[in-house]
UniProtKB/TrEMBL annotation:
Residues 293-311 have a biased composition (Basic and acidic residues). One of its GO terms (cellular component) is motile cilium. Keywords: Cell projection, Cilium, Flagellum. This is Cilia- and flagella-associated protein 161. GO terms for biological process: cilium assembly. PANTHER family: CILIA- AND FLAGELLA-ASSOCIATED PROTEIN 161. Residues 278-288 have a biased composition (Polar residues). Residues 278-311 are annotated as: Disordered. It comes from Notechis scutatus.
Amino acid sequence: MINPRTSKSGRIYSPGVLLGNWFEDVCLEEESLKDFLYKRENGELLIQKSRKLKDTLYKKEQLSISKDGYIHFGDTVLFVNLDVVRLPEEKAIIMGGNLSLAVNPDLGTLYTGDNLSAPCDLSAIEHVNPIGRNAFRILSLEGEAMGEPVRFGQNFGLGTAGGFQDKMLFLSSDHKSFQNMAKKSSLQPVFMTDEISYLCAWQITFLDPQLRMEYEGLPIPANTKVVIVHSHTNQALAVPRTFWIRTYFGKECEINCHTYLDSHKAEESKNHWIIVTGNPSDESTTMFNRPKPPSEETRVQNRELHEKCSE
């Protein structure tokens, strides 16, 4: 039985049937080829692919909800660097706003595949809601069970699929060299790789250097400032905010792995990160967007105002 095929114009072609000196199925192939060439010349193929790419990388993700207030292996979280105070003369050279860690994929590899390809760059974006680009999963590297709390000084990994379904890449770093360094700052680079090794191991340390010994081995509270350190090089994950890059998605900050110390030998705000979890009262938001509970003074004022209104 002959199965006819329909072209884009709606005309039905039957294989094995002559149309002049040509078979109809050959005419269908030629018409499909002309349609492809026309779309390529007019950029329609690139537009369709870029829309699909944006829909995937900016697809909304669901963050994990912490019931006990700690970070656990297997949690899906955001890593946010809070806004910094800038002097008027610094606004032109220092990027402001809250920034989140995100993948910055090579569009050349994305146009030829349906997942992230290694190596993949990273950047800091002005987007603190969970999407495919900035949602990371905390992974176990030493056999810890999923759901077990992550502790200060304990190795863990970070992985993401960038909103795609199959392939996951892992956050990694290595000593800088002439061939391997951050493009703008020329410091130790940070990148995503498809192989788990000792270069993918990270640790979280307490923010105050004077209390780190006391907090060693304790569970890490969620939604608080911490320092993320690369286990192999002992350098901290950082957002310099003075080095930005032009990407397909706009102007974004460079990410590197370097410990910035102040005069008191403590890490600067460039190395401060908040591990953000989901909001249990609203699945579409995060704990970062959750309003703070009112203080006791505010509660008294509200109570007095309510009593006056009721009179």
